[in-house]
Each structure stands twice: as structure tokens, then as C-alpha cells.
Design goal:
10 strands, 344 residues, alpha+beta, globular, 15% strand, 5-stranded antiparallel sheet, 3-stranded antiparallel sheet, single chain
Length: 344
Amino acid sequence: MAGPRIPDTGEGLTAAWLREALVAGGRANCPPVRELRCEAIGEGLGLMGEILRCEATFADGAGPPESVIVKLASRKRANRRLGGRWGMYRREYNFYRHLASGVPLRTPELLYGDYDTRSHRFVLVLEDLGGMAAGDQVDGASPEQVRRAVRAAARLHGEYWNRVESLAAAGLGETLAPRLWLGLQILYLASLPRSLPRLADGWSAEVRELAEEYGFRLADHLTHLSAEPRTFVHGDYRLDNMFFGDGGRDGFAVLDWQNAAIATAPTTWPTSSRAVSRRRSATPSRKTRSASITKSCAVWAPGNSPSSAAGGSTARACWVAWCCRSSSPANWRRPRNGSCDSRT
């Protein structure tokens, strides 16, 4: 889209700039904007970007005021460099530019967007979903909100299940691309010494040992994951990125697609998005949870069955599956005899 210069910060947004952007975005008959008032929103949430709600007042007789959301790169230089290096700004721009209109769930309408490949500056002018209720991760989701979010994720995954060619063509990368494995393993191992002391109160010695050993087997885990079916994932699918309205597909919307990617694992509804009381009441029994983990081990282990030829790799694969699928670190356990069928 050819349009106005990308602002460095929200201070660069003016009435003239917004009108030029809306015209470039396809609103050829956009009337002059007489006044533009912008306020920062999502402070403390949109760490990788600056987000503003802007209300435009048009020239006399040209219609009622209109509110839009403008998203820019972060004001913080370090965050902006990180967003550029990780492709987060490019990824979100590509999503709204090439994919948003085709996904089977509602997203804010793109009114204008631009991205500079050299500086990684970007701007999105989006529909304001202020008429819908924003999710609140602190309060937690209601059962109805959980159902709507999970069903929407299922539609998204189903639409692209093992059909990811259009995603790659739109510039989305794979979260588990082999070229990333070594970097992820190094990052995990480098972060672990700083993380373990903070988790000491909630982790047993057994879980700590598992976390340490997992770092040396992370590449093996990713090898198993890479064989799974690929699909489209949001990458940050949590309550703070969701809006709820009336029933129906248009009554649920998802935003913040900076982490959108091709991945092998479906989105899992994060337990932190549910109210604590509901989360505790819905916790499965130990028997049910163990059966689920046993099934996961059978799927994830090499050859789908214990093998003496694999040495300890089958048991270790079970530990990884347990680590990733269990609802709580307190539930992680080792296999008793190196067999995936030994979970109790």
C-alpha cells in the first residue's frame, strides 16, 4: 500500500496523516479529518508495540466521529530491535495484509498498513472493537468464553491442517524449523540457571532434575515434534488477546498476531485464562490425567512402543511428553521401569 510516512511514535499521528492513510487503504472518498485525538491503550500489555485509540472528527456535515486503533513499533529501542530481529512486526503486517480476510474467525479489519523492511518500522490502522468486551486474564474466562475460544481455535487449525502452503507464501515461518533448534536449546540452557531459583518453592528435586536434563534432550524433543501435522497457530492465544460480543462467529475476535506461525502442535487453551475456582473444580482426576499422559507417551515415543534398542530414549521421550502435556509441574513423574506403559 502506498501511503503516508510511517510515524516513529504516536506523536507523529495527525489529522492529515490519518486521512491520507485511510485514502491509501481504500477509502477514496474519505472526508477531511478536522481533529484527531489519540490515547495510549494496553500499556504494560503491548510490550512489543505502541497501541493507541484515535478518535477522528470529520469536517462539518461529513459524518459522526470515528474511532480506530493504531499500532506502531515499540517506543523502547531494545524492544524495537527485538521485534525486528524476530520478525514480529513483519509477521503481523503480513497476516493482516494477506491472511486475515481468509481465516475462519473474526479479526479487526485492516484499514491501512505499512512496513519498512530496512528499519522494521510498521503501522497498522485497525477497526476498533470497543463495542465488544475485552477478555481479562486476571479475572479469568467464563465457561462460555472458554467454549467459544476453543471452538475458534479448532476452526483455525482445521482450516489449515496439513495445508500450510498459503501461510508460507504469505511470509509466515515455522516455529520448529530445524535451523532454530540449536538456538532454542542454547537459550533454554542459558536461561535455566536464572530460572530455577525462582521456581524452587514450587518444584520438587525430581522436577528440577527433569528440567535440567530436558535442556540436553530438547533437540530430540523437537525432532519428534517436527514429524507431527502442521497447521496455523496464533502463537499467543490467551484471554488478553480476545474480545467477546454476542453469540455467533462475529461475537468472538482475536488480535495481536505478531507470533502467528506454522507449527506442529495445536493451540492449547492456557489454564491461566480460567478463573482459579473454575480451574480447580475442573482439574481431572489423577487416573484420568495418567491415562491421558500414557496415551501421549505412546504417540511421542520412538517407534510408538518401548524398545530396548533405543536404550533410554523411549523413557526420556515419555518424560518430555509428560512435561509438555501435564497440567502442573507438581504432576510430573519419571517412568518406573523405563516403559511408557508404567504411568500411574
